[in-house]
TrEMBL record:
Regions of compositional bias (Low complexity) in chain numbering: 123-138
Protein name: Uncharacterized protein
Residues that span the membrane, as ranges: none
Bias-annotated ranges (Pro residues): 139-154
Disordered: region residues: 123-177, 635-657, 801-829
Pfam families per the UniProt record, alphabetical: DUF5682 (PF18934)
Length: 860
């Protein structure tokens, strides 16, 4: 705005705004230029007066938020978000640029947080629409499940609820439903069915506005307050009393040249003629709690109404564009959309942009709007650029209409020591927080990636879920990790909460791990904690965790609990190899648990019902994998130890401690190596048990299958066991259970039947012999077994059964004369098999052209 400033009006300049409204922000900036005040008062917690000057630093980039939390309970917190297009942010920037004091006048956070803690829990209520101001205390809408943990966010600049209880008092819920949405009332009076569209037409598309716009909005709010009173916002009485007291203080210090930027809903109350005594009486006796306040980064996504933010807007990205676009906002917006679609490989050209602009302007004219709005531009994009599809439109809404912009705060901003250490660590590891979700692949053999992994695991242990582990799409080796990272503003509260454990991420994670180890009630909890400590590199916490683990392992006699604990423990030993961690003590406990499972599992399998047998089968499979991994780890550890500790030339070259450690590890490795044959013997015992009370067929069948897969059970012996299990003397349900254990679960049992027709024939003959009255009992078990197979496997089995049994024995062992199933050859053809051997050798990294005789021999 140009020209000399206007004369100051009588009394303070009350600028009633809608928070997060670019039209209000432009109007505030124009009004301050026209009538420069001596002080600017803003709706917000007065505790922020001490840190508002940080908004002028170059490293401060909105969206940001004021975060206030109770000093003794950081989980009780509230946010006051500010975007680049928020009127308060525009007023702060103007005041700091003109060296004008800025003060906040709303109820202190010390009171609002304490009041929120004393309120009854509020029911989840659908949002009543956007209030006229961000300061409108309407935490309507369901709480955000990813939000920080505080009972209710404080009011003012529409503080966001940090954590609402899902249990609701009926009276509080009724009060929520009675709250008035000023925008909805005014838009309905103007004949609009959409409050957002009405606001865009009368404010956002009308230029920068001026004093007339503020006067009109104040008159509308006065009429609404006369009709509805406080509109269901009971706390407004004390909040507005505090605002009036702060306004009186400013007028005594600066005279009438005071500008107040607040929610338009509060403008009539600030203009009321009340006494200071009456206002102080309203504030007397309010609860109070000691608080701390700081700036934290915010995101456009958390400004969106669908996130549960009561004063949220539907399109923060669109509003940001309207505020910052120097001219031709529609043309610039559609160019952004075209760029996004092109980046996602959609065929969009400049001609599409031109046609979309024309269509949006035409739609606006037909709908009687002064300028094409978001609805018109999206309709134009759908018709011109997306060929009527809503799939690209969803992408545009997510990336542009809402957006993933993450603000930044300067290092000089106040923060808890843990947050400062986290920031330093993020910078040293080149791991920048981002609002948009991204996937991060880590190679633990690299020092930087290993450090990133440790940091993410430590934060997860502290409850700061910046990253979540994901399944790797590449290598499945233990030296690979995949994470999905996404920084949410609420994580700042989680970091503040975790600050009670220590001043650095390492010390805090260590202290929390030790506390959890002492308070853990189950063996599985402690083994999981031990695994997490190894992943996080918390070597200082391991002694405490291991003592707790040994104590609970010694006292727990339940085989199921031991079986649950062993896999996590063995994984921990394995991670020690990958991450260079000494896991000798973990290996001792793992071997001890395995020994106790070997002794206790056979009697624990007797007399189980169907559900108990299914659970025991899962335990048995997990222990089988764990013992195999433990044996491999022990062998690898022995070899690695031999390489890293060569035989000394003399006895004096090795200290007594080193000799003792080496002997202990050698004994552990020998014990681990001996577990596998003993486990196989135990499985063989289970597979052959059929006395009374019998071991369930599900477990016996799975034991036989595990032995077969390990090469410790001959095919003839497997066929004999199946023949016994499916003999006429076995009850059909028990036989079906054995089949489910042997070939069920989608673990390759179908292919076993495809390639061994002896087993398929046994199953086929048994199924034919099942009496009619028993068939309905075994049918669910059989359907569950065979439904887990792939479609191709089921089709092949059907073809084999339709063909009937082979005349000359099974096709993998007979010659060419065996009859073939449709789509199969008559038998093994060595010449045809030899043709592919060079290619297979090349894929395996072997010499692709071996001697011809070797090739023929390999084919055979």
């Amino acid at each position: 705005m140009t020209g000399a400033p206007r004369a100051w009006p009588t009394g303070p300049l009350l600028l009633g705004v809608r928070h997060h409204g670019p039209g209000s922000a432009r109007a505030v900036r124009a009004a301050l230029d026209a009538c420069p005040p001596r002080v600017v008062l803003l709706e917000g917690p007065p505790e922020a007066d001490a840190i508002v000057g940080l908004a002028a630093e170059k490293d401060m980039r909105p969206p940001v938020a004021l975060l206030a939390h109770a000093a003794d309970d950081p989980g009780r917190a509230g946010f006051w978000p500010l975007a680049g297009f928020s009127p308060e942010w525009a007023a702060i920037q103007w005041a700091l640029a003109h060296e004008v004091p800025v003060r906040f006048i709303d109820l202190p956070a010390a009171n609002s947080l304490a009041m929120a803690a004393k309120k009854p829990p509020v029911a989840e209520v659908a949002p009543a629409g956007p209030p006229v101001s961000v300061a409108e205390p309407t935490p309507a809408g369901p709480p955000d499940p990813a939000g920080p943990s505080a009972p209710v966010g404080p009011p003012g600049l529409e503080a966001e609820a940090a954590d609402e209880d899902d249990q609701a008092a009926p009276a509080a819920a009724s009060a929520e439903r009675m709250r008035v949405d000023p925008l909805a009332v005014l838009s309905e009076a103007a004949g609009y069915d959409d409050p957002e569209r009405w606001w865009e037409d009368v404010i956002e598309h009308r230029g920068s506005g001026g004093a007339e716009a503020f006067t009109a909005v104040a008159e509308a709010m006065a009429a609404l307050r006369a009709e509805y009173g406080h509109g269901g916002h009971e706390d407004d009485t004390v909040r507005e009393a505090h605002m009036r007291l702060r306004l009186r203080e400013a007028r005594r210090e600066f005279g009438d040249e005071v500008a107040v930027v607040c929610g338009a809903w509060h403008v009539p109350a600030l203009g009321e003629r009340t006494t200071a005594t009456a206002d102080r009486k309203l504030l007397k006796g309010l609860p109070k709690v000691k608080t701390e306040i700081s700036w934290v980064p915010w995101t456009h996504r958390r400004l969106a109404r669908h996130s549960g933010y009561g004063a949220g807007i539907t399109s923060p990205g669109w509003y940001d564009h309207l505020f910052h676009a120097p001219d031709r906002p529609v043309e610039r917006w559609l160019t952004k959309v075209a760029g996004l679609l092109r980046d996602e490989d959609f065929a969009v050209s400049s001609a599409h942009v031109i046609e979309a602009v024309r269509l949006a302007e035409t739609l606006a004219a037909m709908r009687g709007r002064p300028l094409a709005g978001l609805a018109e531009t999206l309709d134009a994009v759908r018709a011109v650029m997306c060929d009527g599809s809503d799939v690209p439109i969803a992408l545009v809404r997510d990336r542009l209409v809402v957006g993933d912009i993450l603000g930044e705060v300067p290092e000089s901003a106040p923060a808890v020591p843990l947050q400062r250490d986290l920031t330093r660590t993020q910078r040293s590891l080149r791991l920048k927080p981002e609002a948009q979700e991204r996937e991060l692949e880590l190679d633990l053999r690299k020092e930087t990636d290993a450090g990133r992994s440790r940091l993410l695991h430590r934060l997860r242990l502290l409850g700061v879920d910046w990253g979540t582990p994901a399944v790797s799409r590449g290598s499945t080796g233990t030296f690979r990790e995949t994470w999905r990272l996404r920084w949410e503003p609420e994580l700042a509260v989680r970091v503040a909460e975790a600050g009670v454990w220590g001043t650095t991420v390492l010390s805090a994670a260590t202290a929390k791990a030790e506390t959890e180890a002492r308070s853990a009630k189950g063996l599985a909890e402690v083994t999981e904690l031990a695994e997490r400590c190894l992943l996080a590199g918390l070597s200082a916490a391991l002694p405490v965790v291991m003592r707790s683990l040994a104590d609970r392992a010694a006292l727990d006699a339940d085989v199921g609990h031991l079986a649950q604990a062993l896999p996590a423990l063995v994984r921990s030993v394995r991670y020690g190899d990958v991450r260079g961690t000494d896991t000798a003590s973990l290996g001792e406990v793992a071997v001890g648990l395995a020994e106790r499972i070997l002794v206790g599992l056979p009697p624990a399998c007797v007399g189980l019902d169907a559900d108990g047998a299914a659970e025991m089968r899962r335990h048995m499979e997990a222990v089988h994998r764990a013992i195999a991994l433990l044996s491999e780890t022990g062998t690898a550890g022995t070899e690695a130890g031999a390489r890293s500790h060569p035989q000394p030339h003399s006895q004096t070259d090795m200290s007594t401690t080193d000799m003792s450690t080496a002997e202990t590890r050698a004994a552990e490795h020998r014990a681990a190596d001996g577990l596998r044959p003993r486990w196989a013997a135990m499985l063989r015992n289970l597979a052959g048990r059929d006395g009374t009370p019998a071991t369930p067929g599900l477990i016996r069948g799975r034991a036989a299958r595990l032995l077969l897969d390990d090469g410790r059970l001959a095919e003839d012996e497997a066929a004999r066991l199946m023949g016994l299990a499916l003999s006429p003397g076995t009850q059909p349900p028990e036989a079906a259970s054995w089949i489910e254990g042997f070939i069920g679960g989608g673990t390759g049992g179908g292919m076993l039947l495809v390639h061994d027709e002896r087993l398929l024939g046994l199953v086929d003959r048994w199924l034919i012999s099942v009496p009619v009255e028993a068939f309905t009992d075994v049918l669910p078990l059989l359907r569950r077994t065979f439904s887990a197979y792939d479609t191709g496997v089921r089709r092949t089995l059907g073809e084999l059964v339709r063909r009937g049994p082979a005349a000359d024995g099974p096709t993998g062992a007979g010659g060419r004369g065996a009859p073939a199933a449709p789509g199969f050859g008559p038998g093994l053809d060595p010449d045809r098999a030899a043709a592919v051997v060079p290619t297979v050798r090349l894929l395996l990294g072997l010499d692709p052209a071996p001697h011809a005789n070797d090739t023929m021999e390999a084919a055979r």
